[in-house]
């Protein structure tokens, strides 16, 4: 499997948006976006130091989608690019605004990289059980639920469960052919 440095620096999504490889200068906006109060119900947040370490690691690839003015409208993170089993993980996808189709489009672009250039056999993710919007998008694009990690994450004042989902390369190819 190729390292992050061997993947394209830009990807055009099906809707024509450009996903770029994130740069260290983007980390401030990435941290700010995932740390917003309204985001804590959907994604965990990491500090800048962890994101900067990941950006340097060939096992990770960060994608950002920018506003026309240049700020970040969203980002996605893939990990395990060097997996000998060709099993990648969608660590996170976070968007400034929801409901416009941006997330579906960004995810389609990331799927193209994962199963195309990265040569993944499998792409897995976990999502908070109560994040129904994201779960619907993942299912719509072809991810299948594989299990539940019961009360796996402490969120605020309680434990919440994670739904484990994945897609295989053959399923992605079938979904792409159907479109």
Architecture overview:
This protein is α+β, with helices and mostly antiparallel strands and 179 residues long. The chain has a single domain (4-178), classed as Gcn5-related N-acetyltransferase (GNAT) (Aminopeptidase, 3-Layer(aba) Sandwich). Helices cover 29% and strands 34% of the residues. The chain is built from five helices and eight strands; from the N terminus they run ββααβββαβαββα. The chain has helices at residues 27-35, 48-56, 102-115, 132-141, 169-178; strands at residues 10-12, 18-21, 60-66, 72-79, 87-95, 122-128, 144-155, 158-168. An eight-stranded mixed sheet has the order 1-2-3-4-5-6-8-7, sandwiched between helices. A hairpin with a 5-residue loop joins strand 1 and strand 2 (18-21). The longest helix has 14 residues, at 102-115.
Evaluate the radius of gyration.
15 Å
Low-confidence stretches: none
The CATH architecture designation is 3-Layer(aba) Sandwich
| Span between termini | 27 Å
Q: Which superfamily, in CATH terms, is the homologous superfamily?
A: Gcn5-related N-acetyltransferase (GNAT)
Largest sheet: 8 strands, mixed
Total of DSSP H or I helical runs spanning 4+ residues: 5
Which term fits the overall shape? globular
Strand order of the largest sheet: 1-2-3-4-5-6-8-7
**Helix and strand string, N-terminal first?**
EEHHEEEHEHEEH
**CATH domain class name:** Alpha Beta
* Number of strand elements: 8
**Number of structural units classed as domains:** 1
Helix content: 25-40%
Would you tell me the structural class of the helices and strands? Answer: alpha+beta
Give the rounded overall mean pLDDT.
91
CATH topology: the name is Aminopeptidase
DSSP strand content? 25-35%
């Amino acid at each position: 499997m190729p390292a992050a440095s061997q993947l394209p620096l830009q990807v055009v999504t099906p809707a024509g948006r450009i996903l770029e490889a994130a740069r260290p200068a983007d980390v401030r906006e990435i941290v700010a976006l995932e740390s917003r109060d309204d985001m804590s119900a959907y994604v965990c947040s990491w500090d800048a130091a962890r994101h900067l370490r990941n950006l340097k690691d060939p096992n990770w690839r960060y994608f950002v989608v920018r506003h026309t003015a240049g700020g970040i409208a969203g980002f996605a993170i893939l990990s395990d690019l060097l997996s000998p089993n060709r099993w990648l993980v969608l660590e996170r996808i976070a968007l400034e605004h929801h409901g416009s189709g941006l997330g579906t489009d960004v995810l389609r672009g990331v799927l193209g990289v994962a199963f195309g250039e990265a040569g993944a056999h499998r792409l897995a993710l976990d999502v908070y059980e109560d994040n129904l919007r994201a779960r619907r998008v993942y299912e719509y694009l072809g991810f299948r639920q594989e299990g539940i990690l019961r009360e796996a994450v402490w969120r605020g004042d309680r434990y919440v469960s994670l739904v484990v989902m994945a897609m295989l390369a053959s399923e992605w190819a079938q979904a792409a052919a159907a479109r």
